[in-house]
Amino acid sequence: MSVKIRLTRIGRHKDPFYRIVAADSHFTRDGRYIEQIGTYDPAKGTKGAEINEEIALKWLNDGAQPSDSVRAMLSEKGIMAKFAESKVKKGGK
Questions:
Q1: Best CA proximity match to 71, nearest among 51, 44, 91, 43
Q2: Is 33 exposed, middle or buried (CB count within 10 Å of its CB: 0-12, 13-18, 19+)?
Q3: How many degrees, rounded to 5, is the angle at CA 68 between CA 55 and CA 24?
Q4: What is the pTM of this model?
Q5: pLDDT, tens digit (0-9, with 9 covering 90-100), for 51-69
Q6: Counting CB atoms within 10 angstroms of each CB, which of 19, 31, 53, 79 has the fewest?
């Protein structure tokens, strides 16, 4: 099972709102997901994304691949840098 961290839309018509979720890559975009990681409101921009850092790092360490848009949000929040730092520490042991 390949897990992706991606957006799933829950907003109304012409008023988008997204959840950031960990989902099997075979599930539909707005279908089932394994765990919710955060939310994203495009009206507020990427700085308005709320992401649970612990859960995001857990999924990244387990091998989940973020989509391009989610990767940008994780990078802006500094989560991708922490993930890369943790990989370096594990390799240095």
A1: 51
A2: buried
A3: 55
A4: 0.88
A5: 999 999 999 999 999 999 9
A6: 31
Q: In the chain, what are the domains? A: 3-91 (3.30.1320.10)
Give me 3's structure tokens: 């897990």
CA distance 76 to 59: 18
Alpha helices (runs of H) in the chain, residue ranges in sequence order = 53-61, 68-77, 79-91
Tell me the C-alpha distance between 40 and 85, whole Å: 25
Q: What's the sign of the alpha-carbon dihedral 77, 75, 88, 36? A: positive
Q: Is the dihedral of CA 25, 50, 37, 11 positive or negative?
A: negative
